[in-house]
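Service request form, structural biology core

Requester: graduate student, group of Dr. S.
Request type: structure prediction, single chain
Budget code: on file
Notes: please return the result as structure tokens.

Sequence provided:
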Amino acid sequence: MRNKVKSSCTTILVGKKASIDGSTMIARNEDSEKAIEPKRFIVVQPESQPKIYESKISHVSIPLPENPLRYTATPNADDSIGIWGEAGINQANVAMTATETITSNSRILGVDPYVENGIGEEDLLTIVLPYISSAREGVTRLGQLLEEYGTYEPNALAFSDNDEIWYFETIGGHHWAAIKIPDEAYVIAPNRMNIDTFEVDSENTMCSEDLVELIENNHLNPNPEEALNLRHIFGSATIKDHHYNNPRAWYGQKYFTPEIVQDPMDDDLPFICYANRKISVEEIKFVLSSHYQDTVFDAYGVGTDQQKKSFRPIGINRNIQCHILQLRNDVPKSISGIQWLAFGPNTFNVLVPFYTNVEQTPARYSDTSTSFDFNHPYWLFCMAALIGDYDYDRFTDIYADYEQESMASFRNKQLLADAQATKDFSTDYLEEINQQLAEECYNRTVALLGQMVEKGATQMTLRFDLGD
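Core staff response, request fulfilled:
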């Protein structure tokens, strides 16, 4: 089995009444155990979906339903260790992001151990997303699969449609719980068990049928006199959480709800949160790229060496792709789904708003090379991040201009395309717009690299003030 590091990714969820435009948004950084792991962006056609799914890690074999839907995915460029579809929107406008690696504890694992030949992150998008027509159906299908096949690792994931967002966490080898995110709320979820207060008998929650019985019969609840708190019962509160997980939730909550003063190492930071304003795509991207800016914990900041190394940042060298799956409610259903996508480390990349109701994606994003290739955005963004890390203060203004100008241009192109597609819809037209966006992003990023080289060249160590 692959030695998968259980310490990656950050998730942000934004309900439709919490977003600036009334859309639902589920977003995540996919972070690898390696600094370099190229990704692709593809459309999976129904005829390409397997009839029987075979996992390359656990070797579990799963018969799949008939009549799958078309869907987008962001698989690994190297599929020798599995598909790792990670994120996508299907033709019914249902989005799925999978997964956020979470924590567990020995109490639940002693009762319900992991299943070595079960399902895991490698498999989940492929065996769930093509077969659901709502976010609730996603929860139901995944819950059934977990109960039947079990899992070999702890994971959290999210489903959304135009109306609802559901957050789902695995519990032990076969159990699970899911909660509907309030429309007015947002969530910042790092690599820990995140669900806290949980009402079993509610239309806004779903879980394994025997979850309460499991807790009571095995004495799993450390606070039996209080309301069920799944984080306390099934999760962890370790020194690693204090430095690796909790600070990321703290910083995201500090950004969206700055009036609340909290401790970055607090194990009980709230799960469901409410912002002091409506949340935009740009703000989600800022948090997913963040490294504790304007605090002493910023790795590029003015704190002491100890402070700058205290907490794991959200934007990190192991970001391999960032996505925001947006389902819009102010446009026709045919153009509602947008997969905002950025490859590579988030500190020097940019999101591109790709329409998902298409038959194919741009070659620059679908055909990523497994080795360095200047023609593919993944590798350009890795190069920009590497140069930018060399002297962050020198290059950050150049990058800020690049990101703002790029996003403004992409949004303008999208606005015009929305108007045209509303009058005369065709998937061919959406594919043409996606192609234009991909090429513009590529050209702008090449220009960014040129600016960085020109500015950085004047500060090379091998220089001398007297010249001839």
